[in-house]
Write a structure and sequence with these properties.
Elements: H1 6-17, H2 21-27, H3 29-51, H4 54-61, H5 63-67, H6 74-103, H7 123-143, H8 150-158, H9 162-171, H10 180-191, H11 195-204, H12 206-214, H13 220-246, H14 248-251
Helix pairs in contact: 1-13, 3-13, 6-7, 6-13, 7-8, 7-10, 9-10, 12-13
Length: 256
């Protein structure tokens, strides 16, 4: 059974979104707002760069200032950790909702979907996996310095499906059999031989992201849900095609 092509993943996502765009946009409203703000800033910066060269001249004449690292206090670091955790929780909730939609087209989806990772059902698992990944990424970040970050990128791709595997395991009633760290291992197993393919899937949507960035963020209203859907559809397809073989602990329980 062959894996879906990038084109097939995109078409499948759009097909599932038919008649559901309103709910999908509502579910993604927070990342959409963030992306719109980013896109507006980028477009504004481009205009400023075109008509005003003072900032560019300053950066060129002060390369050390432009490239120097910004050190934060302990309070700021804790704040950044908390903010990132909130962003992850919202992203996980959205992916969970979209995964359900991809599996069952008529599955309800809306604004509340983004907050399901904060519910009793998923809060502990999401927090545990987030903390474990955070610790692992610190170590891999240090070890990847000689590889110019390539090792870190590889591990990011390898661990990228941890939350979605947990959701499927929870839906199948087998999640409680395993420690939370096991789901990171399951993700690594599932992504073995598929990291480059997932990287290409992500890269294939960069043009749409760029469109959002140069349209003062307006295009992100559609681009953000589209990207999330394509990335989630990659997982769905991979789990269906290779899950039973690579992660039998979870997907081997599915019977035809």
């Amino acid at each position: 059974m062959y894996n879906a092509t990038i084109s097939e993943l995109k078409k499948g996502t759009l097909n599932s979104y038919k008649g559901n765009w309103g709910g999908v946009i509502k579910a993604n409203i927070i990342p959409i707002i963030t992306s719109v703000m980013t896109g507006f800033s980028i477009s504004s910066a481009i205009l400023v760069a075109i008509f005003h060269t003072k900032a560019i001249t300053h950066a060129a004449s002060n390369p050390i200032d432009a490239m120097s690292p910004q050190f934060t206090s302990g309070t700021q670091a804790a704040g950044n950790f908390l903010w990132t955790a909130i962003v992850v929780f919202i992203a996980v909730g959205i992916q969970y909702g979209i995964l359900d939609l991809l599996k069952r087209k008529n599955q309800p989806i809306g604004f509340r979907t983004a907050f399901q990772a904060f519910t009793k059902k998923y809060f502990v698992s999401t927090l545990a996996i987030y903390i474990l990944q955070f610790i692992f990424f610190i170590g891999w970040g240090i070890l990847s310095i000689p590889t110019l970050g390539i090792l870190y990128l590889a591990k990011t791709l390898a661990y990228s499906q941890s939350y979605l595997i947990y959701k499927d395991a929870s839906d199948l009633g087998v999640a409680e059999k395993y420690e939370y760290v096991n789901f990171i291992t399951f993700s690594r197993q599932l992504m073995d031989g598929n990291k480059w393919r997932f990287f290409l899937v992500q890269l294939s949507t960069f043009g749409w992201w760029l469109l959002g960035a140069v349209t003062f963020g307006i295009a992100f209203i559609w681009v953000t849900p589209y990207q999330t859907g394509v990335f989630t559809n990659f997982y769905k397809d991979l789990a269906e095609k290779q899950g039973a073989k690579k992660v039998p602990e979870v997907f081997g329980t599915i019977t035809e």
